[in-house]
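From the methods appendix. Each design record in this collection lists the tokenized structure first, followed by the designed amino acid sequence. Records were kept in a plain field format so they could be parsed without special tools. The example shown here is representative of the layout used throughout.

RECORD:
FOLD TOKENS (126 positions):
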């Protein structure tokens, strides 16, 4: 059967004749092969991150991140198809994973800056 996907999707094909995963926008699917439609549209995640700066002053930072795959990089698309496509992008598993990475990196960055550096140099902090 011949399959074509929409503009924000990609086919991830595995099975007979394909050693790992083959990504395509349109593809003949032969007997012995399986395919999954992978949504590659980015998703926004919003978190309130509790951090502490170098002066040991706690603060709450509203963090909004847009997460998606880099469509211009084949290696990035393969990793995205293997890791994220198995789960719903808004599932608890993916949200907790993204939140853990964002909170950890934000806390490390904030711990090395003073409050003045954080709020006056917002471009550097971002």
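DESIGN:
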């Amino acid at each position: 059967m011949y399959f074509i996907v929409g503009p924000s999707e990609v086919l991830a094909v595995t099975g007979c004749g394909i050693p790992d995963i083959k990504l395509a926008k349109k593809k003949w699917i032969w007997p012995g092969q399986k395919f999954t439609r992978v949504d590659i549209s980015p998703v926004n995640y919003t978190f309130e991150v509790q951090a502490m700066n170098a002066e040991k002053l706690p603060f709450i930072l509203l963090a909004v991140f847009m997460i998606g795959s880099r469509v211009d990089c084949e290696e990035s698309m393969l990793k995205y198809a293997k890791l994220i496509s198995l789960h719903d992008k808004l599932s608890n598993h993916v949200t907790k994973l993204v939140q853990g990475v964002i909170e950890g990196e934000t806390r490390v960055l904030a711990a090395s800056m003073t409050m003045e550096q954080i709020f006056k140099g917002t471009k550097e902090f971002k």
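APPENDIX NOTE: The first helix runs from residue 74 to 83.
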